Each structure stands twice: as C-alpha cells, then as structure tokens.
Amino acid sequence: MADTSNGIIYGTAEVKFKPTDGADKTIGWLDENGMQPAGNAPSFTDVYAAQVTDGPVDSILQNPGSDAFTMNLIQLKAQNLADIFGGTAEEDGSYTPPANFVATGVLTIKTHSGHSFRVFNARLSRNGWQNGLNMQNVFAFGIRVDMLKPADGKERRWRIYPPGVVPDTSDATADAEE
Predict the structure, then answer these.
(1) Residues 121 and 155: beta-carbon distance below 8 Å
(2) What is d(CA 148, CA 44) in angstroms, rounded to the nearest whole number?
(3) For 4, phi and psi rounded to 5 degrees?
(4) Domain range spanning residue 124?
C-alpha cells in the first residue's frame, strides 16, 4: 500500500511495550508533552593542517550519537508500572517496585496522525519523578527510551509506518527482505 498521507506525524495516541520475555502491554497515559527527543548529536574531532588556515581539512567521527525519547507517565496505576518495569501490583492496587528500573523490548508508538513508530530494541529506564506533587501539575514517573542496536542482527533500530499499515504485518514482510 502506498503512503497517501502528507507525511506529517503528530500526537501520541498510544504507547505499547513488549518486554523481551512478555506480551504487548499499553503503557498508560502520558502527560501533555507526549514523547520528547532526548538523544545526543554525533561528535567529531576536527583535523587541522598547518598549511590550511581557514578551517579543518577533515573531521573524525568520535561518537555516532544516540536516539532517545523521554516521556512522563501520569497514569500511575500499579499494573501500568508492573507491566513496564516489573515489581508487584498488589490486589489492593498498591505497587511494590523492583530494585532495578530497566527493561528492554519492542516499543510501538501510535500517533494521532495515524502513523506508527516502532523501536525494535528499546531500553526503558527510570528518569526520576517529574512535574512535582502540587496543585499546578500532575505527578509523573519519568521514563527514558533509548534506541539500541537490535539484538537480532538486523540493521534497523526503528521504523516509521504510514497510516493504515499494521506494524506487525509490515515487519514480517520488510524483515524477510533484509
């Protein structure tokens, strides 16, 4: 199916996370900021020559940079937290956290524009408490999403899907071609 959208991607409609050893789970509501870019730009070392006085003659890549997002989970239900990081969601709705707030798996973001964005090897980690506990904001659990090199040996770290394309169906086709 050809992409007939205008290509403009906006709005976080739903975020699902499938841990390496689990099933797809909807993460829960995020604050109005949705997901914010948090990666690092590549860094280079400039190479200068004595004979060239108007700038570098080359540059050497030192660090390729990284891609990441941050998000603030405002729907702090015990099951939402347990689905992401583990720990225990008690029958009475209370939550006992794990010792380590790090999880890896596949993250799929559905947008209001109809697009989807998938990270094939996402590392989710705790990014501290956010927004404060007051009457001007909503208390939130900060989460950082790092886009790591896929563990399955494939080149793609992430993929964008146009409206109407189902990520699981598209992946089966595209990954078979690689």
Answers:
(1) no
(2) 21
(3) -105, 5
(4) 12-177
